[in-house]
Design goal:
It holds the Pfam family Abhydrolase_1. One of its GO terms (molecular function) is hydrolase activity. It comes from Actinomadura miaoliensis. This is Alpha/beta hydrolase. The structure is a single chain. Helix content is 44%, strand content 17%. It has one domain: Rossmann fold (3-Layer(aba) Sandwich). The longest helix is centred in the last third of the chain and has 25 residues. Strands 1-2-4-3-5-6-7-8 form an eight-stranded mixed β-sheet, with helices on both faces. By secondary structure, the protein is of the alpha/beta class.
């Protein structure tokens, strides 16, 4: 894996850590969940063969501290952060953007807010559950997760959230045996766990309540690739991507693995991402 160029960007209320590799048109990678720039370590080098690849830790996560740790989190502000990076790294040309999970929600907002600066967006399983006909059920899930977090703490809330994301009738995912990770992977896992209270308590309630501008997205759907995991059928994060692809008539691109296919199948995921960005 190549060593990226590291930068810091001051934005409203936060300082962003970002990493840049390669040369060519800008590809901005937006991580999801409790992950940061390191989420894309498995694909960044391959993508950097023909792109300037930028990834970053979203505000409040890992190495991108907030000025006010209690500040309310909003999709629009996270999208503005991404635009600030875009303006810094590609001031004269539109960029390509790929986001996963909550990062895909940010990517959708970017496309509707500043389409003149976006050439193409790949949105992998954006959990915009408000577009679904059973959105009320998912609001109830989020309320249960927040109540569990307040009453019982982090790990019970994580379990409640994970159960709500699984397909109906699916068995719980078995706990994995502890294994000794290489130092870099161990540091990444530790950062992810440290980010979890912020993600579950602050990002999830705001982002999963976000309502995209569907008419505007549909008008821009020729620049939008809606994607989901081959193994995700029936799971909650899969359903909004499938719903939007059907509504827009664009088709759904299936990536290897499930919701975390970026991590579990990095080589295949990266190859397909490169293909859909350039065709």
């Amino acid at each position: 894996m190549s060593t990226p160029t590291i930068g810091r960007l001051r934005v409203d209320g936060a300082t962003l850590h970002y990493e840049v590799r390669g040369e060519g048109p800008l590809l901005l990678l937006i991580p999801g969940g409790a992950g940061g720039a390191a989420s894309f370590d498995g694909v960044a080098d391959a993508l950097a063969a023909d792109h300037t690849v930028a990834s970053y830790d979203p505000r409040g996560l890992s190495r991108s501290p907030l000025d006010d740790p209690q500040a309310r989190q909003r999709v629009a502000q996270h999208a503005d952060d991404a635009f600030r990076l875009l303006e810094l790294l590609s001031p004269d040309a539109p960029a390509r953007v790929a986001g996963c999970s909550s990062g895909a929600i940010v990517a959708l907002h970017m496309l509707t807010a500043r389409p003149e600066r976006i050439e193409r967006v790949v949105a992998h399983e954006p959990p915009v559950v408000e577009v679904l006909p059973d959105a009320a059920e998912h609001r109830a899930l989020l309320a249960r997760v927040q109540e569990t977090l307040r009453r019982d703490g982090l790990m019970p809330a994580v379990a409640e959230f994970a159960a709500g994301l699984r397909r109906p009738g699916a068995d719980p995912v078995p706990a994995q045996a502890a294994t000794e990770l290489p130092p870099q992977a161990r540091a990444r896992a530790e950062r992810t766990m440290a980010n979890m209270p912020y993600f579950l308590g602050r990002i999830v309630p705001s982002f999963m309540a976000y309502v995209p501008d569907l008419d505007r997205l549909e008008a821009l759907s020729d620049r939008l690739v809606l994607a989901a995991g081959t193994d995700s059928h029936g799971e909650l994060p899969y359903r909004p991507a499938a719903f939007l692809a059907e509504r827009f008539g664009t088709g759904l691109v299936h990536f290897p693995g499930g919701h975390t296919g970026l991590t579990t199948h990095p080589a295949e995921f990266g190859n397909l991402l490169r293909k859909v960005l350039t065709t």
